[in-house]
């Protein structure tokens, strides 16, 4: 939409209507009236003129309509010429610019971007339509948004950069190549510009203090300073006599009355903080001159209002580095400071300890008549220190010497033509910058009268400074463009205001390129009230160089003012090109006048050696003058860079023997030797090879109809470095009445406008609630603090739009898949390179048999019967409850008899025949083991199934039903309680209960024997089925033969040295994989005693497992990652409690069960006295990459309980073979290596040093079991790979499963996974493919046989890897980075959908903090993995599904996300 309030083309509006429109516009922009009120008043004003304007100005007609997307892009008519408007309402506003933005937006067709989704509880004002678009079924909402996002991303982007060739192992980030067609400077070399000579005559005083003494004694009644209150009333006028006497009094008090241990507290040259509010210029001036008289160095700072002010810590750092120990303030100000409980002023964060001195008259001592301060000459000593906050937020002190201070006052007097007794109205902050130089220092030198306007008065009455100019007939005024803009708001009712007395209106921020619009608008309105155009004098200054240039009125010999219309595109390349005003992206700048008297100025290149710029090149302005600051206090290094620059010619010759000071201003020298400034170094953002100014971006954003959605002037733009380049971030405060939809529309239009005008993408656009951005002391936004909050995730936005897809153009080149090298060439290549083929094996089984038992008793039923007859009373199992009591024990004979009873029931009650499948649905316990052997006794095939959860039948029961159906179970064995559950009403809601097979409750089966125990006719006969759900969500059952079952037990027995005299503790789920084998099979085979700790019991008593290990002195123990994590989280802080011996001795729990419930968190009384020094090996059972961070933290946490440092290790198994690696009790300790994560993405293994960039620690997955052979093969060519390659782990072992058990018996799948052969080399051996990627490394350690040990490192599941940008990523690596990004991220899971990377994070914090995570997640994945995140989903803790082994179910999560079942807090679609 075109700019509001711009004049109508056909119908000239009367002047008063124009004025009313301008005021109305400003009232709206300042938030003084609502949008509705604005529309109503404006309609009334234009009622007579609108009919005449049909077809003339679309902006005016659009106002009465509700703004919509179609109207938003209405193009401005081409024939409309651009003119200065009467409604310039902001320092950033420009007609030309607003029209340019509208034209740019008109070029874009309305892009349909997917809007982020918010949970209703997070929304403040949001239309229902925005939440669920009408007509879109809920299940497809997410998918449709992703489709929208894909369509948006398909739109042509800016051309990608010239690509580098990328070696497989080195990801070279794109370095942006200069565009050959980009503009280049063509002018000649600039020369040094010399200012007029400083007219040094006998009339100049020797120092400022000498002047003060002169005026104080000869003109004591002359007014020096008038202070106003918030109503505009003059509350006090300080005369020169009073200033002199009170400054003397203060100087005397400081030097003589302050002591510490009978020593004077202060010495000449000490620094003193001045803490005075903006409303008290009188006390500040007294304090400033009092310090100078006492030869102390004043350091003016802002009044700290709270203990957490924006930037307060940095101010503390400044005070500390300056060695400040004393702060001067007023009585009123001191009372308002935050207090500690003692009543003293509170200690502010990061501040040194300060003594506070109140300097009101009654607290000071009158000096004796004969006391005089030391004579002050204008020497090189520091006079005062001004604070400066850098772009990064650090605060430094700029030291100004006495000589510089005097020279600055003299130069300003000459340049501004100040004369004695003139009146100056000052709106600026008198503590620093131009407000201090003009309103406190130069004014005293010239015996001027300063009327100081406080900030609070300006807010209450923006016209106050003009009224004071009028009332005091002021000759000069000192303002910023903001003050001119504010004063336009209230001028209409003031007919009698006159500015004819002004001869000089200094615009202190004239160096802001957008100040020209405020100057023009102000002149337009006030020219009729006596303001002469030549009075407006913009100036440029910086803390380091003080005043750099100022425009002189013609009566002081100044040339006529100039302005330049510059191409913004050329400016971004640092080149000056004048442009026709019809161009879209132009910047109109005004001159800031001539160089200061006595100064030399040159323009040098911004980066590198300070070469002089060419005449048509933008550079940094440097000044050589006696009136610049001298140093950054206490910082020698950066002082040299800034204050001692030696500019050189193109040939490298220095241009002067005196050093120059860098001003931080970017500009050029124009016609008539006028200085032009186009921006500041602090606001400079270098994106690629182009430079953009933060103020320019703000101006473009403000031109996009902001007043409806965001507050004007409450916008911050800064850059953050992501992936070695600056990325632009725009943060604005959103109006409370703006709807989600409207704000999102505005954001997407801002992106388009900035893209079109500046040809640069915005990386992140965030809207925050009103009044939440950190404020600078005198209004405005504290940009560096805002940036800090953004980077720390403390900004708390209510709307975020990230655009990494469009901004990040320097990603490494996607990897092109090369034609695969054949397997034969691969082997030859490895041989030539001296690399061995990656294969390894465990010990040979034939040498290790300990007796004939293994050969005689091939089948587990035989072993159990043999044990029941030879050692009937030998205890095999102890089952523990949450209290640590033994709930049941089983000896060999008891287990044998229970199994017989089950077998009899199956044959008689269920009438099952040999080979029938039986589902065992039991809680973890001895009944499950008895039922398993009962099935084997009668020749049935058991299938263990996790029982449904009573509180969560809807999701757990269907899985039970599915396994029962898929396994074709003819009968279900279970307990009474579960039988009732399976047939309950609640179960009816989840599954069809009528289709259950026979359900047999084994709680009360009669004591019966079977006639004969079934003996399999062949070792290859099926023993049991092992079903589990993989992490990719696939339910897979594998077949285990009797031979494989026995071989598995034998391998584990040998590896872990298990004998009947041993006790092991098991805290695992007994339903599948190695957990099932350890729980049900191994004790019977090896005869050792198993202490069974059901993992669900840990939810009641988290210390149960560790207590059991300690109590039963288990040398070997097994657990899962979820158990380990539960212990680390729940017990990490309680190791001292666990270590303490219990007062009452532990008694056999069977005879004295503890009746007291354990208190939540603390272990029950019987759980104390835990000692883990007995543990030889603690193995984590898993089918994934070892979680090294968790195992290490567990080891460290429980070291205090005696856990040996190297005890914790991991195992590795998978569907095709449940136990491939197991650390065992003998053999070398597990090794850890560090690999290059970038090389892994290319399937290469490159070892690096610990701590090197991109290093990833991987720990060995345990020792390869006896009888197991492992080889690393290429997953596609099936050729063997060398040591340096990542490939699929293949295994050959007598205990591998014999195949998948599926309904349709997919033979192809079976052959592929269970009987694979290499395509080259050893083509005879039959291997099973694990589906896991890993590599082998020969270590320096030796194993039991004396051979060098081969370690297997598992990297991740092949099915879970993400193929992105032609490379292979492992989800866990991305997730680890994301979890580190912010303390509120509890857990994370990633998956891909249509080539978009989706990151789901669990928020452990407040919902309003959710949006902070979007940018942090996007940043960290870009930085560490060079990937662009497509969608960020923020959910509640516990939403990411995890299986019983503690593994994330990423595919379940993906399905839930796409079906819109996650109830996310926020979904952000990155552009």
Please give a structural write-up.
The structure is a single chain. Helix 1 packs antiparallel against helix 2, helix 13 crosses helix 14 and helix 33 packs across helix 34. The N terminus is likely disordered. The chain contains 43 helices and 59 strands. Helix 34 links the parallel strand 42 and strand 43. With about 1450 residues, it is of the alpha/beta class. A 9-stranded mixed sheet has the order 4-3-14-13-15-16-17-18-21, sandwiched between helices. Strands 35-34-43-42-44-45-46 form a 7-stranded mixed sheet, sandwiched between helices. Strands 1-59-58-57-56 form a 5-stranded mixed sheet, with helices on both faces.
List keywords for this structure.
43 helices; alpha/beta; single chain; 1471 residues; disordered N terminus
Give, in spatial order, the strands making up the sheet with the most strands: 4-3-14-13-15-16-17-18-21
From the spread of the alpha carbons, the general shape counts as: elongated
* Mean pLDDT metric: 83
Query: Oligomer, anyone?
Result: single chain
Spatial separation of the terminal alpha carbons: 24 Å
Strand coverage percent:
15-25%
The class by helix and strand makeup works out as alpha/beta
What's the main sheet like? 9 strands, mixed
Number of helices: 43
- Give the low-confidence spans: 1-10, 51-91, 123-139, 156-169, 1141-1163
Radius of gyration: 41 Å
What percentage of residues falls in helices of 4 or more residues?
25-40%
Q: What is the tally of beta strands? A: 59
């Amino acid at each position: 939409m075109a700019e509001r309030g711009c004049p109508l083309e056909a119908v000239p509006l009367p002047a008063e209507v124009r004025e009313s429109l301008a005021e109305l516009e400003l009232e709206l922009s300042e938030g003084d009236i609502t949008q509705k009120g604005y529309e109503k008043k404006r309609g009334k004003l234009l009622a007579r003129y609108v009919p005449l304007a049909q077809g003339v100005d679309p902006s005016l007609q659009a106002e009465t309509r509700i703004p919509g997307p179609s109207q938003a892009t209405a193009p401005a008519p081409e024939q409309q010429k651009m003119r200065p408007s009467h409604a310039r309402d902001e320092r950033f506003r420009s007609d030309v610019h607003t029209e340019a933005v509208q034209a740019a937006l008109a070029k874009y067709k309305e892009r349909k971007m997917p809007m982020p989704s918010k949970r209703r509880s997070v929304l403040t004002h949001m239309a229902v339509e925005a939440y669920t678009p009408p007509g879109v079924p809920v299940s497809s909402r997410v998918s449709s948004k992703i489709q929208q996002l894909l369509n948006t991303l398909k739109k042509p982007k800016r051309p990608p950069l010239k690509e580098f060739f990328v070696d497989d192992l080195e990801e070279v980030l794109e370095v942006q190549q200069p565009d050959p067609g980009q503009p280049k400077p063509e002018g000649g070399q600039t020369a040094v510009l010399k200012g007029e000579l400083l007219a040094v005559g006998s009339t100049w005083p020797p120092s400022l203090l000498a002047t003060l003494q002169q005026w104080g004694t000869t003109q004591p009644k002359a007014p020096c300073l008038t202070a106003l209150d918030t109503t505009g009333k003059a509350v006090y006028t300080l005369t020169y006599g009073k200033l002199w006497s009170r400054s003397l009094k203060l100087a005397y008090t400081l030097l003589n009355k302050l002591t510490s241990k009978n020593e004077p507290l202060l010495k000449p040259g000490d620094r003193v903080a001045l803490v005075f509010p903006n409303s008290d210029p009188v006390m500040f001036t007294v304090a400033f001159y009092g310090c100078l008289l006492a030869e102390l160095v004043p350091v003016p700072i802002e009044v700290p209002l709270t203990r957490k002010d924006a930037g307060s810590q940095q101010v503390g750092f400044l005070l500390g580095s300056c060695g400040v120990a004393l702060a001067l303030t007023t009585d009123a100000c001191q009372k308002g400071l935050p207090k500690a409980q003692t009543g003293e002023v509170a200690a502010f964060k990061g501040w040194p300890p300060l003594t506070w001195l109140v300097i009101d008259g009654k607290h000071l001592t009158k000096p004796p008549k004969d006391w005089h301060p030391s004579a002050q000459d204008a020497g090189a000593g520091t006079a005062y220190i001004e604070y400066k906050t850098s772009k990064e937020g650090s605060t430094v002190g700029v030291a100004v010497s006495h000589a510089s201070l005097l020279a600055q006052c003299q130069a300003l007097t000459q340049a501004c033509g100040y004369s004695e007794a003139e009146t100056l109205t000052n709106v600026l902050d008198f503590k620093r910058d131009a407000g201090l130089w003009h309103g406190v220092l130069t004014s005293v030198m010239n015996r001027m009268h300063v009327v100081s306007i406080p900030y609070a008065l300006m807010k209450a009455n923006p016209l106050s400074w003009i009224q004071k100019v009028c009332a005091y007939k002021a000759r000069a005024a000192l303002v910023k463009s903001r003050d001119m803009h504010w004063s336009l708001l209230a001028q209409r009712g003031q007919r009698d205001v006159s500015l004819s007395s002004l001869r000089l209106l200094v615009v202190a921020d004239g160096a802001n390129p957008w100040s020209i619009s405020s100057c023009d608008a102000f002149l337009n309105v006030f020219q009729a009230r006596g303001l002469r155009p030549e009075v407006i004098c913009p100036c440029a200054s910086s803390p380091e160089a003080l005043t750099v240039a100022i425009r002189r009125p013609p009566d002081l010999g100044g040339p006529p003012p100039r302005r330049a219309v510059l191409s913004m595109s050329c400016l971004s390349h640092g080149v000056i090109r004048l442009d026709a005003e019809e161009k879209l992206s132009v910047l109109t700048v005004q001159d800031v006048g001539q160089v200061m008297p006595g100064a030399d100025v040159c323009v040098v290149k911004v980066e590198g050696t300070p070469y002089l710029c060419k005449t048509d090149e933008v550079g940094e302005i440097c000044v050589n003058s006696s009136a610049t600051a001298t140093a950054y206090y206490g910082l020698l290094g950066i002082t040299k860079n800034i204050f001692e620059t030696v500019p050189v010619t193109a040939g490298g010759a220095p241009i002067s023997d005196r050093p120059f000071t860098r001003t931080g201003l970017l500009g050029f020298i124009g016609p008539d030797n006028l200085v032009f400034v186009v921006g500041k170094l602090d606001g400079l953002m270098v994106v690629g090879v182009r430079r953009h100014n933060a103020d320019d971006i703000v101006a473009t954003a403000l031109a996009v109809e902001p007043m409806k959605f965001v507050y004007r002037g409450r916008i911050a733009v800064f850059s953050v470095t992501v992936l070695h380049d600056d990325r632009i971030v725009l943060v604005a405060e959103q109006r409370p009445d703006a709807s989600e939809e409207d704000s999102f529309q505005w954001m997407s239009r801002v992106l388009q406008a900035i893209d079109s005008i500046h040809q640069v993408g915005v990386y992140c656009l965030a809207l925050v609630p009103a009044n939440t951005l950190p404020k600078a002391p005198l209004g405005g936004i504290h940009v560096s603090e805002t940036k800090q909050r953004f980077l720390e995730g403390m900004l708390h936005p209510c709307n975020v739009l990230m655009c990494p897809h469009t901004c990040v153009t320097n990603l490494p080149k996607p990897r092109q898949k090369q034609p695969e090298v054949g397997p034969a060439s691969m082997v030859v290549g490895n041989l030539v390179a001296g690399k061995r083929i990656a294969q390894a094996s465990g010990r040979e089984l034939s040498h290790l048999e300990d007796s004939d038992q293994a050969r005689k008793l091939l089948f587990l039923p035989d072993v159990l019967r043999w044990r029941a007859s030879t050692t009937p009373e030998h205890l095999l199992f102890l089952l523990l409850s949450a209290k640590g009591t033994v709930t049941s024990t089983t000896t060999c004979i008891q287990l044998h008899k229970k199994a017989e009873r089950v077998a009899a029931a199956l044959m008689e009650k269920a009438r099952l025949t040999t080979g029938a499948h039986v589902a065992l649905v039991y809680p973890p316990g001895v009944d499950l083991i008895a039922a398993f052997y009962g099935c084997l006794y009668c020749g049935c095939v058991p299938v263990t199934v996790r029982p449904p959860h009573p509180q969560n039948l809807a999701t757990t029961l269907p899985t039970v039903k599915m396994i029962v159906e898929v396994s074709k179970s003819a009968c279900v064995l279970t307990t009474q309680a579960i039988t009732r559950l399976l047939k309950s009403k609640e179960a009816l809601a989840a599954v069809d209960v009528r289709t259950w097979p026979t359900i047999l409750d084994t709680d009360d089966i009669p004591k019966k024997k079977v006639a004969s125990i079934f003996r399999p006719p062949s070792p290859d006969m099926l023993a049991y089925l092992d079903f589990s759900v993989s992490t990719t969500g696939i339910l897979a059952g594998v077949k285990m033969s009797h031979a494989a079952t026995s071989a598995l037990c034998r391998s584990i027995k040998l590896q872990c040295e298990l004998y009947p005299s041993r006790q092991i503790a098991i805290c695992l789920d007994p339903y599948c994989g190695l957990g099932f084998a350890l729980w049900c099979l191994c004790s019977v085979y090896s005869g050792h005693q198993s202490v069974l700790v059901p993992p669900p019991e840990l939810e009641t008593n988290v210390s149960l497992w560790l207590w059991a290990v300690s109590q039963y002195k288990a040398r070997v123990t097994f657990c899962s990652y979820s158990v380990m994590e539960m212990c680390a989280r729940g017990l990490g802080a309680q190791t001292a409690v666990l270590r303490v011996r219990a007062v009452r001795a532990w008694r056999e729990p069977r005879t004295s069960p503890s009746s007291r419930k354990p208190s939540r968190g603390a272990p029950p009384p019987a759980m104390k006295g835990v000692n883990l020094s007995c543990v030889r090996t603690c193995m984590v059972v898993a089918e994934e990459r070892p979680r090294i961070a968790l195992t290490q933290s567990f080891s460290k946490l429980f070291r205090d309980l005696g856990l040996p440092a190297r005890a914790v290790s991991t195992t590795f198994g998978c569907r095709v073979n449940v136990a491939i690696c197991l650390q065992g009790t003998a053999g070398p300790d597990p090794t850890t290596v560090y690999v290059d994560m970038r090389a892994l993405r290319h399937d290469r293994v490159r070892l690096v040093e610990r701590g090197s960039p991109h290093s990833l620690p991987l720990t060995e997955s345990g020792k390869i079991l006896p009888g197991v052979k492992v080889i690393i093969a290429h997953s596609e060519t099936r050729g063997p790979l060398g040591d340096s390659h990542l490939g699929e782990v293949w295994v050959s072992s007598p205990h591998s499963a014999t195949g998948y058990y599926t309904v349709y018996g997919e033979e192809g799948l079976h052959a592929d996974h269970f009987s694979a052969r290499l395509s080259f080399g050893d083509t005879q051996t039959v291997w099973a493919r694990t589906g896991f990627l890993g590599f082998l490394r020969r270590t320096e350690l030796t194993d039991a046989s004396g051979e060098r040990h081969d370690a297997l490192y598992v990297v991740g599941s092949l099915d879970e890897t993400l193929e992105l940008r032609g490379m292979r990523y492992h989800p866990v690596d991305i997730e680890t980075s994301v979890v580190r990004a912010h303390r509120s991220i509890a857990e994370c899971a990633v998956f891909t959908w249509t080539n978009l990377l989706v990151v789901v994070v669990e928020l452990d914090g407040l919902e309003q903090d959710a949006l902070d995570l979007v940018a942090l997640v996007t940043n960290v994945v870009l930085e560490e993995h060079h990937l662009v995140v497509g969608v960020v989903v923020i959910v509640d803790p516990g939403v990411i599904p995890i299986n019983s082994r503690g593994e994330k179910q990423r595919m379940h999560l993906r399905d839930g996300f796409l079906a819109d079942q996650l109830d996310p807090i926020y979904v952000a679609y990155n552009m």
